[in-house]
Structures are given as C-alpha cells and as structure tokens.
TrEMBL record:
This is Uncharacterized protein. InterPro entries: Glyas_Bleomycin-R_OHBP_Dase. It comes from the Eukaryota. It comes from Lophiostoma macrostomum CBS 122681. SUPFAM superfamilies: Glyoxalase/Bleomycin resistance protein/Dihydroxybiphenyl dioxygenase.
C-alpha cells in the first residue's frame, strides 16, 4: 500500500491531523443486480460480503475488494430510506466515504465538543477494538455521508492502519475468507476520488480544509492526503447535485488493464476517457510500470 508521510499538524480548530486511510467507498443504486454485474464483470473482482444486518434499515448491499480496500453498493428495499431519497433526488451515485483512523472515539469526542458535526449512527465493539461513527452529511461539503472508524492494534493486527490487508469490520467476522479475496485483487489499488460541490460553490480548497478540521485528514491545498489515496473537490455546476464525481483505481499489469477497458467497451459503458458505472465516472490507471497510464 502506498503511504503518505506522517506529517501531523494542528488544524485550524485545534486538534492535530492524524494518518487516515480511505478504506471504503459506498455507492447507491436503484438496480442492485445490474450494478453488481457491471462492477464485478468490468473490474474483474468478486463479491466478498453481503451484510444481512443492513436489512433493518431497509437496504441490501454487497462489497467487493479493491486490493486491501473496499467498494460497497447499497440499494433500498422499502420506501422512506435515506438511500431511496438520494436516488429520487439525483439517481445512482455516491453514498458514503468511509475512513479509517487511529482513534475514531477520540475524534468523535472532539467533533462533539466543538460542535463540528452530529453523529447519526455508530457502535463500539470492545472485544474487537472497533469503533464506527457515521456523521450527518448536512453542512459537510461534498454531498456524501462521512464515516470515520478505527481498529485498535492487537497481537494479530498490530498495524491496522498501515497493513494493506488488515481486518475490516464492514466485511464480517471471517477475516480469512476476506483476506483471500483481498489478495486475489492485489493488482488493484484505490487511488482516490473526487467530490463535486453544490451548485454555486466554487471554494474547493475550503471543502478540503473542512474535512481536515473535522475528520483530521491531512491536506495539501485542495487535496486530502489519505495514507493510500487522495480525495479532491471540483466546483459545483448548475443542474448537477453535489456528490461523488469520480473514482480512480490503479491496475498493476497491462493485460489486466486492457481487459478492463475491453469488457467496459463490450458492455457499452465507456464515456469520454472514463467508464460509467453506477452514476459515477471511473478512471483506471496503469501502475507498476513507471509513469501511470490513464484509461
């Protein structure tokens, strides 16, 4: 896993930034089966987990590995869900940005003390050392639900943030099965994503500064510097709701890289320099061969 230097610094609101990993991106889709086929077929990955517990919120989902990180897609199964309202408002697209930090509980206490955000859901599993906190998206630039989680170091997982294939609570308790699936896609890396701001909002550096201040992610001007990826923002455009604009995935190996392009073309999913899946632009870059070649 590529890593950013551990350059902790005080943010403008007082608490220092901490190494943070972009561990999972969640999308929302009307037709889950169609998106399941598109993603697994084009990228060449497989379903690693389907969480029956999301049914209590009127959802169904699946997760696929991108090396040591994950892509989730959710779909509503009943009326009146947040996911359903998002689909009605803007169609298929982004849903959540899920980050992994060193101590999500400490960050949550800071956010609540400073009034920087509102927790809408979460849990703590002391035996597993897991803390999971979802925050209300209102007021958070980028149009996604932010989630900040952590795994405590343990004898079997001594470096949960740095280890590429470390356990991840969102894919269930069977780490061995998940580990095998992650390693099968070790040629894939989550390189980053871009969030589109609300119409009329052109202050993309302010957006990055807000995420730095609230969630503790290090920043370089208008880019958030996760340990494994980068996240940026583009100005809002009239007629387009804020939300996830694009995802970039690295592919190690020219044959695999070309295979993704060929399968996307055959499926009629190619746009002008990108692949269109689940309402999001997907960019694939060839890695491991000197300079990256963009798809």
């Amino acid at each position: 896993m590529s890593s950013a230097p551990d350059s902790r610094r005080k943010s403008s609101v007082g608490l220092e930034t901490t190494p943070t990993r972009l561990r999972q991106i969640a999308l929302v889709a009307r037709d889950l089966e169609r998106v399941r086929w598109e993603i697994t077929h084009v990228i060449g990955t497989e379903i690693v987990y389907e969480d029956a517990l999301v049914g209590q919120w009127g959802l169904e989902n699946f997760l696929v590995p991108l090396g040591g990180d994950f892509l989730e897609v959710v779909s509503p199964t009943r009326e009146g869900t947040t996911a359903g309202r998002l689909l009605d408002k803007r169609g298929d697209g982004g849903y959540m940005i899920i980050m992994q930090t060193e101590d999500a509980k400490r960050r949550r206490e800071f956010i609540e003390e400073k009034g920087l955000g509102k927790k809408i859901w979460g849990y703590e599993n002391e035996s597993e050392g897991v803390v999971c906190v979802q925050y209300h998206p209102r007021g958070v630039k980028g149009g996604v639900i932010p989630e900040l989680d952590s795994h405590a170091p343990s004898p079997t997982n001594p470096t949960p943030l740095q280890s590429r294939f470390s356990p991840w609570h969102a894919v269930g308790p069977d780490h061995e099965t998940c580990l095998s699936a992650m390693k099968k896609t070790s040629h894939l890396t989550l390189e980053g994503c871009i969030l589109r701001l609300a119409p009329g909002d052109v202050r993309h550096e302010d957006a990055a500064r807000q995420w730095e201040d609230v969630f503790g992610v290090g920043r370089s001007r208008d880019l958030l510097a996760f340990t494994n990826a980068r996240m940026g923002f583009v100005p809002g455009r009239e007629g387009l709701a804020e939300g996830l604009e694009s995802v970039t995935v690295g592919v190690n190996g020219k044959e695999r890289f070309d295979g993704i392009l060929d399968r996307a073309r055959e499926a009629g999913l190619c746009g002008d320099g990108w692949i269109n899946m689940c309402g999001v632009k997907w960019y694939f870059v060839l890695t491991g061969h000197g300079e990256k070649e963009k798809l």
